Known about the structure:
- By secondary structure, the chain is of the alpha/beta class.
- The protein contains 6 helices and 13 strands.
- The chain has helices at residues 9-17, 23-43, 47-62, 70-77, 80-88, 198-203; strands spanning 111-112, 126-135, 145-149, 170-174, 180-186, 191-192, 211-212, 215-220, 228-234, 253-254, 257-259, 274-278, 281-283.
- Helix 1 packs antiparallel against helix 2 (23-43).
- The radius of gyration is 22 Å and the shape is elongated.
- The model has no long low-confidence stretch (mean pLDDT 96).
- The structure holds benzoic acid and fe (iii) ion.
- Fe (iii) ion (FE) binds at residues 102, 104, 151, 212, 215, 217.
Amino acid sequence: xxxxxxxxxxxxxxxxxxxxxxxxxxxxxxxxxxxxxxxxxxxxxxxxxxxxxxxxxxxxxxxxxxxxxxxxxxxxxxxxxxxxxxxxxxxxxxxxxxxxxxxxxxxxxxxxxxxxxxxxxxxxxxxxxxxxxxxxxxxxxxxxxxxxxxxxxxxxxxxxxxxxxxxxxxxxxxxxxxxxxxxxxxxxxxxxxxxxxxxxxxxxxxxxxxxxxxxxxxxxxxxxxxxxxxxxxxxxxxxxxxxxxxxxxxxxxxxxxxxxxxxxxxxxxxxxxxxxxxxxxxxxxxx
Length: 287
Ligand code: BEZ
Ligand code: FE
């Protein structure tokens, strides 16, 4: 019979959690328990601090639903999401780098034609993002589905708005046989992470920025290639150097070129000035 003491409790807990039926489960849970105990010992966690943390976790769970992913946001602002992205997406230096998915991706975006307007009347300066999807050897990738989403000029995503029953600022485009794609949308703005939840409350306990720089999200999942989740960021936009979710990589910062009225890249006409971004997405073949 071994009675519990402050000295032996970690060892005993580790041996119990080490009995996980699956070896990986045992590895994950013993490492988690070991780090939690080490954390509590290192900072001499008080009961009041422990209770505050538990209440924060409860509130984070309660505010989450199928559209609001507050735990994903928590992972993002802690830098955990980008750490995991980088450990698991070690692409060739020629490939487009991966970044965080974030909490605002919705799965069922409609499939649209080459150059279709996913902003559909939402106010903003017209923006065309176009280029080629190819692999690291330069081979065009036709038939690639580009799942694209962004916020509006208030910094709000569809999932943050009540009563929206049609896809808003999101669509799926398919690259043509020569790999070319063209997205019509509006110029994105930077925005702060939601200010009505426990994650923002936590960030507000520090002096760090609560902002993300202006960007558009892309998810490209093609059989035979590594899935690419990434963003394109507007060059010169504020907060490229202190993105609250650590998502900015040099290769993803792109120039938004301003154009006079005339034919945009989708071959139609634009009676107003418009912006263009030319960017080739380079996919990593699956090992
Ligand atoms: C986003 O860009 O949608 C996002 C990503 C991570 C946290 C918050 C927002
Ligand atoms: Fe975003």
